[in-house]
Write a structure and sequence with these properties.
Layout lengths: L2 H12 L1 H8 L3 H9 L1 H22 L11 H9 L10 H10 L39 E3 L2 E5 L5 E9 L5 E7 L4 H15 L6 E4 L3 H4 L1 H9 L3 E4 L9 H15 L8 H17 L11 H15 L1
Parallel strand pairs: 1-5, 5-6
Antiparallel strand pairs: 1-3, 2-3, 3-4
Length: about 300
């Protein structure tokens, strides 16, 4: 309770002058605060209404996303809204903080890279520049684990487009053998029609340095790229993707109840990620929407 509120609550019993002296505030300040009361009440009501709109944006049952923080919430609230009715991101952040509406955060990470013993190396063609001018030019990928309540794990391999951030290829399995990453790359090739001329960047895990994976890349006309050994920053975008996926799917829990639930959860999340989930790196729109915008722009330019 503020000192002004204390004076207001007890002024009829003890008087404003005496109470202001006791709590050490100026009477003029108290009366100014009292006069501003209706405005504060109106702002509090408006903040409460905004908080409810934010809850809708974060509620999966109503088409929302619990993982959305202030930037994505702001983009969602302002989507299709006239400029005069848009809400400022600083206000959204303040209301989320005051109403405990923070997005979900990941609690732990587990290393899944199996060190390569073959000595095979590929040059780093990305150089921590996780961008591309057009889709289907440069990709990054990695493997992450999905913990199951019975103590087992599923493993997810990814192929992420650096232009649109689209998950062009992915595969889930109960192992980390080379077939896992091969299937993910083949899925990307089917999605894109062809990967010819593109670059795929990964860490130095043994599956990515294997002869079988190198042959598949050659067959698909994909050039392999790798960062330095033991440097996660060289594949930071894929690491960040994995962290977001697990944070949003597990929602603070330590495991999935079973493998079937984990697989279904990943399938739904991937579909939402590509079609609806807003991504800050591409203007807070979805990967598919971003690629559609690029296609439209190129068509108009032609």
């Amino acid at each position: 309770m503020s000192r002004f509120q204390f004076v207001k609550d007890h002024k009829d019993a003890y008087g404003v002058k005496r109470l202001c002296e006791i709590v050490d505030v100026a009477r003029s300040s108290f009366y100014a605060w009292l006069e501003a009361g209706p405005g504060r009440a109106a702002r509090a009501a408006a903040d409460a209404e905004l908080a409810e709109r934010i809850r809708v944006v974060q509620d999966p049952a109503r088409g929302g996303d619990r993982a959305y923080g202030a930037p994505r919430v702001t983009a969602e609230l302002n989507d299709g809204v006239p400029a005069s009715q848009r809400v400022n991101h600083k206000r959204v952040a303040r209301v989320m903080r005051e109403h405990c509406l923070a997005g979900i955060r990941l609690r732990r990470r587990v290393k899944t890279t199996v060190p390569d013993q073959s000595g095979r190396r590929f040059p780093d063609l990305i150089g921590r520049d996780f961008t591309a001018e057009q889709p289907n030019q440069r990709y990054v990928g990695d493997i992450t684990y999905l913990p199951i309540a019975d103590g087992s794990n599923l493993y997810l391999a990814t192929v992420i487009d650096l232009c649109s951030r689209k998950l062009a290829g992915w595969q889930v399995a109960d192992h980390m053998r080379v077939g896992l990453v091969e299937d993910a790359l083949r899925t990307a090739a089917r999605d894109r029609g062809s990967l010819a001329g593109s670059v795929f960047h990964s860490d130095h895990g043994s599956v990515y340095t294997s002869k079988a994976y190198a042959k598949l890349c050659t067959d698909l006309k994909v050039t392999q790229s790798m960062g330095a050994v033991g440097t996660s920053a060289d594949n930071a975008l894929a690491e960040s993707f994995n962290a977001s996926l697990k944070r949003e799917l597990l929602e603070g829990r330590s495991t999935f109840p079973d493998q079937a639930t984990a697989y279904r959860a990943v399938f739904r999340w991937v579909n939402r990620y590509n079609t609806r989930r807003r991504h800050s790196a591409i203007g807070n729109i979805s990967p598919n929407a971003y690629e559609n915008t690029i296609s439209t722009t190129l068509a108009e330019a032609a």
